Predict the 3D structure of the following.
Amino acid sequence: MMLDSMSISTSSFPDLADPAGDAAASAPVVLDGVRKRYGRGRGRVTALDGVSLALAAGSFTAVLGASGSGKSTLLQCAAGLERPSAGTVRLCGSELSSLSDRRQTVLRRERVGFVFQDLNLIPELTVAENIALPLRLGRRRVERAAIAEAAARVGLDAGQLRRLPSELSGGQQQRAAIARALVVRPEVIFADEPTGALDPYTAQSVLRLLRGTAEGATVVIVTHDPQVVRFCDQAVFLYAGRIEAVVAAPEPADVADRLHALGALANSGGGA
Ligand SMILES: Nc1ncnc2c1ncn2[C@@H]1O[C@H](COP(=O)(O)OP(=O)(O)OP(=O)(O)O)[C@@H](O)[C@H]1O
Ligand SMILES: [Mg+2]
């Protein structure tokens, strides 16, 4: 397998390769030597095997790799939703292990937005109530104008705001999820396969929207879709829990080739 010849070493990206360096000091998302193991004994799985990464403020990063390569685990560890087995994570300037669970929760609620395919809208609440949820949880004032503005930014109208999520299409629901993530004006947005259930056209418009509305936020998108990288500054490829390559200004065709090679390698048992 010629993966080595396709690899771009992280050393050509000093800010990415050196999480302790100056460029990384101000990065809102920094992982340093992060490992994550699940289970024990013969059932033990190493989901992340020493991942170091610093994402610059305002950057858009796609995380790609075969199924099981550790993408979701990377996102969960970066967001503090999973605790690494080893290594450190710094999010919005705070090392997560130094914060109590409660302070981590507050940090996530106030400064981080999430768009997950399956951590979605609450079915009993209207779309407007769903969008307002992060504000309510943070005991912040919920102004109708702020909700209407967040909805307008993603192209949802007043009539749609009054409906239940089940009364919207998949694409409209994803817009509502993005509005909910944006309503606190987060510094970092984590998205795990945010367009996985959408047709290619709707997926593109949702991503264009995310790109256009993130307003300086640092965005990390886990995806299987090579087209997503059109909206990203860089692509991080995972293989068996490690960073296999980091590619700046990625092209969808190259990304598709690389994913194909990584998928073949994973399925040939050449790693994970
Ligand atoms: N809670 C868990 N308990 C045990 N093993 C887990 C757990 N979560 C993930 N894993 C394992 O860790 C590895 C990485 O999983 P992860 O969900 O990060 O992969 P992924 O790259 O997101 O895959 P996909 O593209 O299929 O979503 C897999 O082998 C998975 O089975
Ligand atoms: Mg996943």
The domain at 3-267 is CATH 3.40.50.300 (Rossmann fold).
